[in-house]
Amino acid sequence: TVTTHLNTTLKIALKIIGLIILLIVLYFVESFIFLLIFGTGAQAGNTMNNGLTKLIMYILPLIIVGGIAFKMFKKEY
User: Fold this and answer.
1) What pTM was computed for the model?
2) pLDDT tens digits for 3-21?
């Protein structure tokens, strides 16, 4: 009862922490790949000003992690 509730809460907290870590790792890997492709010069700056690049760099990892979170928490309840 209390232990079961605590155990369930701990599992949910660990899943949320895991999703946050996954989001940070995705941002890091995406930034590293971008750096490998474009470097740090003016071409990289011009590419980052592109709206599609911003969408891919910032929104795509959120969509991926959001989809994983939806599947994880949908199965439980």
Assistant:
1) 0.80
2) 788 888 898 899 999 999 9
* Residues whose CB is less than 8 angstroms from the CB of residue 57 and which lie 6 or more positions away in sequence, other chains included: 30, 31, 34, 48
Nearest one of 21, 36, 30, 35 to 60, comparing CA atoms: 30
Dihedral in degrees, nearest 10, Cα atoms 24, 29, 33, 36: 90
Left (φ > 0), alpha (ψ -120 to 50) or beta: where does 41 sit? beta
Instruction: Measure the CA–CA gap between 77 and 72, rounded to whole angstroms.
Output: 10
| CA pair distance 61, 25, nearest whole angstrom | 9
CA–CA dist 16, 71 (Å, integer): 13
CA distance 28 to 3: 37
d(C-alpha 62, C-alpha 59), whole Å: 5
